[in-house]
Automatic annotation (TrEMBL):
It comes from the Bacteria. Residues 24-118 form the Bacteriophage lambda Replication protein O N-terminal domain. This is Bacteriophage lambda Replication protein O N-terminal domain-containing protein. The lineage of its organism: Bacteria, Pseudomonadati, Pseudomonadota, Gammaproteobacteria, Oceanospirillales. It holds the Pfam family Phage_rep_O. Residues 157-170 have a biased composition (Basic and acidic residues). Residues 1-24, 157-181 are annotated as: Disordered. GO terms for biological process: DNA replication. It comes from Vreelandella aquamarina. InterPro entries: Phage_lambda_VrpO_N (IPR006497), WH-like_DNA-bd_sf (IPR036388).
Length: 370
């Protein structure tokens, strides 16, 4: 149509191109008071803490909920920062009471709008660090710990035993400092011990764990990072991880390994329960654990579908979590449309643990289940 000619004065009006409108409130917004925003500005949040707080506010208040389950990997991907940084920052924000969590360490997380409750710095971190300094665990001036007559003394020079005994300005470490540090480290180890790994080899695991803590500037944040890492890997059903001994986890520094893709088991279970006929087995998320039949198969299939390109297209089946959930929902719809699924005897073999095996999922999607 570009070669049409028009009589002078009869040319069609030029329709101006629509200019991009930019972000619009109609596409979603977050209501937050000026008072809270000013409090955040005064909070002196460090590094990634401020964007994490804003991200959590957007994910909760932006959807008219007070709190929500938000995995470390999800926040990290949304902000484009390392998961380890997210884990450490969230742990600090929780201790400062800028954020709060409902239930255990895997529960929903939310923003605490009561800014008068915020702490300027983590009291737990300050307590551990101060106790470490008092006990000589942190040495700023190359101080040495020596043992004399059953008591520990701090000295800076290589003095003789006689000189040390004669000096009046050297104070023994107080028993209360040692006890304070011991209690803090013991408490952090107990949290780590309950993270979900098999409770085997407690004594060597404790020795290794405390040795690692003494090298950390923030032992509490480091502990929180390990706990979050363990639970993320258990949730993702990393092969063999559920049987890994705590000491092995520490010796191999498994928290430094790349985090696996998180499989949204609960959302996929909900899709199964919704799409399948009433006589087909319904699955409870509480019963669908890493030890249950099918959990590992689903986690592996999810990882492969999301990360490995198909030979036909050169692209993965899906790349985003919502796409993946919708993919499984479509798989279950197609399965529910198969005639023999509506027979009562199908309840004996048509189970979620079977349908989520990767090869079976592919067959269902392609219509090869008749």
């Amino acid at each position: 149509m570009s070669n049409l000619a028009y009589l002078p004065g009869h040319e069609p009006d030029q329709v101006p191109e629509e200019q991009p409108r930019g972000p619009q409130l109609e596409n979603g917004y977050v209501r937050i008071s000026h008072e809270v925003m000013r409090a955040l500005g005064r909070a002196r949040l460090r590094g990634s803490e401020y964007p994490i707080v804003l991200f959590i506010i957007d994910e909760t208040w932006g959807w008219h909920v007070k709190h929500k389950v938000l995995r470390t990997s999800y926040i990290a991907k949304g902000l484009g920062i390392p998961a380890t940084s997210v884990s450490e920052a969230v742990a600090e924000l929780l201790r400062r009471r800028v954020l709060y969590r409902v239930g255990d360490s895997q529960g929903p997380i939310g923003f605490n709008k009561n800014y008068d409750q915020w702490q300027s710095k983590s009291s737990a971190s300050k307590r551990v660090k101060r106790a470490n300094q008092e006990s000589g665990m942190i040495h700023h001036n190359a101080e040495q710990l020596v043992h004399d007559n059953g008591e520990q003394f701090i000295h800076q020079n290589r003095e003789s035993n006689k000189d040390r005994k004669d000096r009046k300005d050297i104070n023994p470490l107080s028993d209360s400092s040692d006890e304070h540090v011991s209690n803090d480290l013991e408490s952090l180890f107990n949290e780590f011990w309950q993270a979900g790994l098999p409770k085997d080899g407690k004594k060597p695991a404790k020795q290794k764990f405390i040795a690692l803590l003494k090298k950390q500037s923030d032992p509490a944040a480091f502990t929180a990072r390990l706990i979050d890492d363990i639970r993320t890997r258990l949730d993702a059903a990393v092969p063999g991880f559920a049987k890994l001994h705590p000491k092995t986890y520490l010796n191999q520094q498994r928290w430094e390994d790349e985090l696996p893709e998180r499989c949204p088991h609960v959302a996929i279970i909900e899709a199964w329960n919704t799409e399948m006929p009433a006589h087909i087995e319904k699955v409870s998320p509480e019963d669908w654990t890493p030890d249950s039949h099918g959990f590992q198969a689903l986690a592996n299939a999810w990882h492969n579908f999301k990360t490995k390109p198909r030979s036909s297209t050169g692209k993965p089946v899906f790349t985003q979590e919502p796409e993946g959930i919708e993919f499984y929902r479509e798989v279950f719809r197609r399965l529910a449309a198969v005639d023999r699924i509506h027979r009562e005897e199908s309840a004996r073999w048509c189970r979620l643990s079977w349908a989520v095996k990767q090869q079976e999922t592919i067959k269902i999607f392609k219509g090869e289940i008749a």
